[in-house]
Amino acid sequence: MERLKKINLKTVFPFLGLAAVIILFQVLTGGKVFSIRNLKAIMNDSFFILIGTVAFSFIMAVGNLDLSMGTVMAVSCTCAAFASGISPVLAIPAAVLAGLVLGCFNGFVHVHMGLGSLIGTMATQSVFQGILVLLLDGGTLAAPVSMLKWGSNGLKITVMILVSLVGAYIFNFTAYGKQCKAVGACSEAARLSGVSVKKVKYMTFIVMGGVVGLLGLFSLIRTGTASAATGGTLMMNVWCAALLGGLPLSGGSACRFRSAVIGSFTMAFLANGMTLMGLGTHDKQLIQGIVFLAAIAISFDRKNLVVIK
Amino acid sequence: MMKKINMKKILAAALTLGLLCGCLVGCGSNTAQDQEGSAGLETGNEQGATGEESFKIAIGFTDNGATMFSLMANNVKTMVEGMGGTVVFQGGIGASADATIQFVEDQIAAGADGIVFGPPSDSVLTTVTTMCEEAGVYWGIAFRSITDEEIKALVESSDYYIGHCFEDEEKTGYQVMSNLHNKGISKVAIISMAKGNNTTDLREQGAQRACEEFGMEIVAEARDLTQASDATNAAESFLSAYSDLDAIFVVGTTGAGIHEAVAKAIEDAGKVESVKLATIDFPDSMAELFEKNILATSSGAPSWGYDPYMITAAVANACKGNRISDMPLELEIPMYDIDDAETAAKWLEKYGNADTLYYEESVIKDTLDKSVNSGLDEEAMRNMIQEFVENTAD
Fold first, then answer.
1. Closest approach of chain B CAs to the CA of A10, in angstroms?
2. Residue ranges of E strands in A203-277
3. B130 and chain A in contact, CB less than 8 A
4. Which residue is closest to B153 within chain A, CA to CA?
5. In a domain, B12, yes or no
6. Are residues B389 and B318 part of one domain?
């Protein structure tokens, strides 16, 4: 009974968190949260967070982490900017391909070189940052003006829904999704059950890379600029969203896809609400840090500490 | 198990109810505003001191904690409030395209009627133009010029773009190098922003022009330093790698304590006599650095905050329905040099204090508010700028 109560609290916490954030800011801002202008801003905020968190949920399900997603996004954005100089349409494959290649490299470092995902992606983040500086020659790169018109809200909503639906389907209803959770729960047991653990882990990094590459493209469309600062906030936002949504750091069967969605919207409403209240960047960073800490403290499964790679 | 499922259902229902209530409150709030005829202003329920419709202006800049930021904030606040509006400031803007776009988007959502910022590059302006047009928000640029002709044409075609207030950055870069040349300096290392930053790119072009003209040489460079410790490392590297180095020129930075860190590195290396420091925009420690004989020359606007001040005044008038001009404004602020401790001390006495007002409240109302001063046009603003510069120089 005691155990059931504990599980229930962890299950309901993300829902409560989202509801609390929405109601709190709706009251504090006198009902500004659901104005049309603001909903557009929330949609734009949640676009990058949600799509990033959907891909990250697969990495978390296998019990891994990724510190390099921000720089992967920046490199993809830069490649897209270069390609758009030849033809704007080329920016699409360039961004996704760059993300896939870098994701593949992350997978190689973790799976074949045997480095833990935390240390491995910390190292690759530095490598990718170096590549970025070389590509940009210490500067910035602009996209053609014509390309900036692609970023309609309709397209963003479509992509968000599409990525979420495909992610939910793969995570919940395919063998691959179940294998991810099986590997996260106990990789040795999964291996003995016939799961190709290396392949599953490899794929999570490749998917992450490809999806973040797509975000790099949308970042270029949104800002018109590729720079070393691109994607600087992605990792913190995605990590916060995943943890606020209730994705356990230890991975495994406790991972739920809905966590990615709920956490992303919680983060988007939180960031937006603080802006509506007129909080400055530093105040927001402070609050975001505290929320991040609280989310870890509540969701962290200390008993499974040993399985975090 | 049953309990778990039920709990989820109850929570899902509660969440739906919460969202529904929120929507209704939100819609109710908008309706009330519409009925008041607030002309699309999200902050239309606030009333200015004169009983006119209030307006809100958002200002975003990279704030590194120096006095010039507080001075700017105090003055802009006094001016906007004097004109019946409110102002919000957001730091951490200007160094990255992502942060700039996010700032504009957030402030539009938060109900800003006017936006002022210093863009990190031209390329962000296309998106800003679209966002502000869709939202009907007036906006202006401080410190920067638009160098890309295609983007400039697009931005200036927008009815909501008010204009920009800027310095001749190329000329300033040239001027600093020219001052260094006059002090017998020829080999210079630079600390600058990332390539692609309009301001520092232009300053570097000017510096390069001076190099070609005076036979000077830029021997090394370090970019995008945001931490004082990084500046120390860069300066130490310059000093050890180039024994014949004459000066370190801080072309531009958004970091705090960069000038002081470079000066300390020069001192620690025992090269105060042989290596000098040059800066653009007057640092808080300027007088002290001149006294120590480390700082050779500094060039800047009469007061850093005067740029955003003047363009905000124009945006504020537009928000009140009194545009200064139908064409985008081009307000240039002349730079001037400080070369000695005495002038630096005099300048700091005035603008080293965050409470100094550029104009008293009564002057603001009588001159900068077009609803009171119908003669306020671009030419009048230029005259005010010229007068301000002359008063500062005196």
1. 11
2. 225-226
3. yes
4. A145
5. no
6. yes
Is residue B208 domain-shared with residue B218, that is, in the same domain?
yes
Q: Which amino acid is at A266?
A: T
Handedness of CA A164, A168, A169, A171 (dihedral sign): positive
CATH of the structural domain A13-302, one choice from 1.10.3470.10, 3.30.70.1350, 1.10.3720.10, 3.40.50.2000: 1.10.3470.10
Q: Is the residue at B26 inside a domain? A: no
Indicate if B110 and B193 belong to the same structural domain.
Answer: no
Q: Point out which residues pair with B53 in neighbouring strands.
A: B47
Chain B hits for A88, Cβ within 8 Å? none
Q: List the single residue in B42, B92, B127 with the smallest CB-CB distance to A148.
A: B127
Q: How many Å apart are CA A22 and CA A269, to the nearest integer? A: 6
Q: A20 Cβ partners below 8 Å, 6+ apart?
A: none
Give the distance from residue B389's alpha carbon to the nearest chain A alpha carbon, in angstroms.
32
| Paired tokens of A163 | 């990525």
Q: What is the ipTM of this complex?
A: 0.79
Query: How many domains does chain B fold into?
Result: 2
Residue B14 is assigned to a structural domain of this protein: no
Residue of A nearest to B137 (CA): A37
**Total Cβ atoms within 10 A of residue A146:** 11
> CA A130, A242, B17, A275 torsion: positive or negative?
negative
Q: Report how far residue A261's alpha carbon sits from residue B209's, in angstroms, rounded to the nearest whole number.
A: 55
Taking only the tens place, the pLDDT of each residue in A27-77 is 888 888 888 878 888 888 899 999 999 999 999 999 999 999 999 999 999
- With residues binned 3-state (H G I as helix, E B as strand, rest as coil), the percentages for chain B, rounded to 5, are 50, 15, 35
Query: Residues B380, B325: one domain?
Result: yes
CA distance A71 to A211: 13
Place of tokens 């963003």: A156
CB contact under 8 A, B105 and A34: no
Sheet strands (E) in B348-389:
none
Cβ A159 vs Cβ B139: under 8 Å: no
Look up tokens 């180095």; give the residue. Answer: B245
Rounded distance between C-alpha atoms, residue B280 and residue B97, angstroms: 23
Question: B232 lies in a domain?
Answer: yes
Q: B198: domain range?
A: 169-300
Which DSSP category does A89 fall into? Answer: G
Specify whether B193 is located in the same domain as B290.
Answer: yes
Partner A, chain B 39-58, Cβ-Cβ below 8 Å: 42
Question: Is the pTM value of this prediction over 0.90?
Answer: no
Place of tokens 């356990």: A248
A178 contact B CB<8A: no
Please judge whether A12 and B25 are an interchain contact, meaning their C-beta atoms are less than 8 angstroms apart.
no
Cα dihedral A280, A283, A285, A291, rounded to 10, equals -130
- A238: amino acid identity, one letter: V
Q: Are B208 and B241 in contact (CB under 8 A)?
A: no
Nearest to B331 by CA among B203, B163, B173: B163
CATH number, residue B183? 3.40.50.2300
Q: What is the pLDDT of residues A151-179, one digit of tens each?
A: 788 899 999 999 999 999 999 999 999 99
Q: How far is B221 from chain A (nearest CA, A)?
A: 11
Asked if B173 and B251 sit in the same domain, the reply is: yes
Query: Touching check for A272 and chain B: CB below 8 Å?
Result: yes
Q: Contact B110/A232, CB-based, under 8 Å?
A: no
Q: Locate the chain B residue with the closest alpha carbon to A231.
A: B98
| B95 in A contact zone (CB under 8 Å) | yes
For residues B95 and B121, state if they share a domain.
yes
Instruction: Mean pLDDT check: name the lowest of A71-75, A136-140, B208-212.
Output: A136-140
